[in-house]
Amino acid sequence: MTARVIMYTTAVCPYCVRAERLLEAKGVTGLEKIRVDLDPEQRVLMMQKTGRRTVPQIYIGDTHVGGFDDLYALDQAGGLSPLLNG
């Protein structure tokens, strides 16, 4: 059972694409995407929850991982797979 993964994203976001590819390579299949470009209220919620304005913002389970650079660093440090596997 892999953890629930949520990514705040927009239509045109190269870092969102890279994050999605990395997550897919790790076996994530049910990525939930929240499009903040289509729903301004979701952008406000994202900023309140994360304190950040940029996308992607990634949650694995209840853990806020951050953006693509944070996700990549977590993977390089060996922390991504354990987090995904709950």
TrEMBL record:
The answer to keyword Lipid metabolism applying to this record is no
Q: Which GO terms describe its molecular function?
A: glutathione disulfide oxidoreductase activity
Q: Which SUPFAM superfamilies match?
A: Thioredoxin-like (SSF52833)
Tell me the Gene Ontology biological-process terms attached to this UniProt entry: cell redox homeostasis; cellular response to oxidative stress
Q: Does the keyword Metal-binding apply?
A: no
GO cellular component terms, A-Z: cytoplasm
Keywords assigned: Cytoplasm, Disulfide bond, Electron transport, Redox-active center, Transport
- What InterPro entries does this protein's entry cite? GLR_AS, Glutaredoxin, Glutaredoxin_subgr, GRX_bact, Thioredoxin-like_sf
Which segments constitute the Glutaredoxin domain? 5-65
| Stated role | Has a glutathione-disulfide oxidoreductase activity in the presence of NADPH and glutathione reductase. Reduces low molecular weight disulfides and proteins.
Q: Which family does it belong to?
A: Belongs to the glutaredoxin family.
Q: What is this protein called?
A: Glutaredoxin
Q: Which organism is it from?
A: Rugamonas aquatica
The gene is grxC
